[in-house]
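Board notes (copied after class):
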Amino acid sequence: MTKKLKKSNSYSYGNNVIKKDIINKSIEKEKIFVEAKISKRVWATVIDAITFYPFAYVMILAINIFRTKGIAEGNVELLRNANYLMGSVVCLALVLFGFLPDKFGGQTIGKKIFKIQVVDKNGSNPGILKSFLRDFVFKFLFAMVTLPLSIIISIVASRRESKLVMSCIYDKTLKTRVVEK
């Protein structure tokens, strides 16, 4: 027999008392996730690139101008400014691809628009480090290597499972997946 205890967030099962939080957490872990469609993933990545690359491109142009002018004129201050701008590019990348996905439950700006998110193998938020590694290091810095490998892996996996599944190499490496929100 189950009865709710007065003024308490717990339930009584015979002699056992179970807190309501424990019951809710076990129910949350049993959520069923639907894998995100490939088209949503691709468009979310395009939007992420559109939000990052213009800013980074302008900053990198400014860095090159400061460095070139600083070296030509022997101006240490211009070289220092170039280093500050490089630090700004790194900070921008950390915010867009590390902090924001962690803060918004595994979602970058593109994923938020398309209502998809990244979860780890347990179905929870992957955290700042995994988000940064996945979204910036693997997707943008090593895209020339990871994209072709991801396509090959997806095709091979699809033939085995007889359905098209986009499972990228960085998702396999970091034990994450992209699901519908």
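Comment from the instructor: Residues 34 and 179 are 5 Å apart (CA to CA). The longest strand covers residues 116-120.
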